Amino acid sequence: MERELKLELLQDQAEGLIGLPLVSSCCVEPPHEDRLVSTYFDTSDLAFRRMHASLRVRQAGEHYVQTLKTWGTQHGALYEREEFESAVPGNAPDLGALRDKLPEGTALGTLLREGDLAERLKPIFITDVRRTVLLLRLPQGDEVELAVDRGVVRANDATEPIRELEMEIQTGEPAHLSAFALRLLDAVPMRLSRASKGDRGYALVADEANEALRAEPLRLAEAGSAEAVFQCIAESCLAQISGNERGVVNGSNPESVHQMRVGLRRLRSALDIFEPLLACPPALQSDLKWIADELGPARDWEVLANTTLRDAFDGAPEDVGAGAVLAAAKAVAADARQRAAQAVNSDRYTRLILTLSHWLGSADWRHGLDEAQRAALTGPARDFALATLRKRQRRLLKRGRGMAKLDEQRRHRARIAAKKLRYATEFFESLFAANKVRRYRRQLSRLQDDLGWRNDMAVAEGLLLRLATERQQLAIGCGYARGYIARAVSVDRQPLRCLWKQFKAARLPA
């Protein structure tokens, strides 16, 4: 299993980075430089890419090594993925050697055993880099291989430069990589690297959409401690956040922004749930709120432009000016999306993810705890989960009393309570009987979805008011859309009353 942290150099400062006293003081042996030329192979229909894998043959001097890598997972700046290597005699893959390493039952193993695969393989793109490698021993004793790559990825006539720092941990704790990277960042401007060299090459040969990443279902150990469960939940949230960065920065799919915000909301909700047991540093909480706020306008305007206004203007008279309102909303959404991308590409965000990765990996919350607090952290996760669900359900039942008649402010508080209860239920559901959780979650999800839709309508109302105020020529169209929203919300009163009644009758999955 390969575990590495990747950062992108913003300027050609490789020599300066290598010469830093922070780096040289940790060097175990003098640095050495190699020229690495890697040829990536795939079929015409990109069979390896479709299986989230890459196959390359790398030449270093007179030696050739083939490597098959999986996409693996990204947690913050840290990549974890499987890789299978073997020496080969020349610049062509040896599928037989790879078959010995991958069992038949896997998708990749099946692909490798296709009889005509060798004939179908062809070079797809090449990376040509000068790599400077240093072996470091960090102050904590971790052994790390630090590599600085400068070069190019080339596919036919298309090229893209490569300026990367990779730190692969040989022995030790991954959290120490993040702490070391933060110190490097004080001296050299860098940002998170969201694309491997293989990703960059495939982007030159194929028109690939950046898929939005949803949260994977959690599988918690029922006998686990509350602390172990928190770490599992937080890593899941961080994976969702990190997995959508590339789509926010380089893509146009509104779902990428939405899923990154969901990941941030899930993480902040988890920190709130476990706050009685462990404390997140205020500065870290502040930065999490900052990036969530930076993504918010893009999400709000994209929902308005792509969903709400399309529904509102369906069948509208021509003199309403629907086209002009839609165009204006899309333009504002594009500007908001650009600001969101800049935030995710910023030094502040890079520091946030590195700091968060270090905090989670090092369990810094343990410092300063008394004996009772330590005992609570190591207590049974299921007991803590049940107490949390009961507490959050009581809060929702209190705030939602008379749900259909609540004013906007009180309904907003009920919506927040429903959202927090839903996240808690999703976090802990594997600790309870599946059939009981399923029924309870279904009723809660229906209620929270309706409240979320109402919130979207309230946000859309405010955005339309702003648009009409700033651009008088759009007033008629904005007024028409606001009328649609008012009617839709009014019609929803009885369905909301029924959803609230059904939720009150649902039983916790105790």
Brief summary:
The chain has 510 residues and is of the alpha+beta class. The protein has helices at 14-18, 21-24, 47-50, 95-99, 107-112, 117-120, 174-185, 197-205, 226-243, 245-250, 254-273, 282-312, 322-344, 347-362, 371-377, 381-399, 408-428, 434-470, 475-491, 493-505, and strands at residues 2-9, 32-42, 53-60, 63-70, 73-75, 78-81, 83-88, 122-137, 143-155, 158-171, 190-192.
Ends distance: 38 Å
The helix tally amounts to: 20
Oligomer: single chain
Name the CATH superfamily classification of the largest domain: CHAD domain
Structural class based on helices, strands and sheet pairing: alpha+beta
The tally of strands reads: 11
- Average pLDDT over all residues: 93
Low-pLDDT regions: none
Radius of gyration: 26 Å
Gross morphology is globular
Describe this entry's structure for a reader:
- By secondary structure, the chain is an alpha+beta fold.
- The chain has two domains: 204 residues, Hypothetical Protein Pfu-838710-001 (Beta Barrel); 274 residues, CHAD domain, CATH 1.40.20.
- Helices cover 54% and strands 18% of the residues.
- Strands 1, 2, 3, 4, 5, 6, 7, 8, 9, 10 and 11 form an eleven-stranded antiparallel sheet that branches.
- Helix 9 crosses helix 16.
- The radius of gyration is 26 Å and the shape is globular.
- The model has no long low-confidence stretch (mean pLDDT 93).
- InterPro entries: CHAD_dom, CHAD_dom_sf, CYTH-like_dom_sf, CYTH_domain, YgiF.
- This is CYTH and CHAD domain-containing protein.
- One of its GO terms (molecular function) is inorganic triphosphate phosphatase activity.
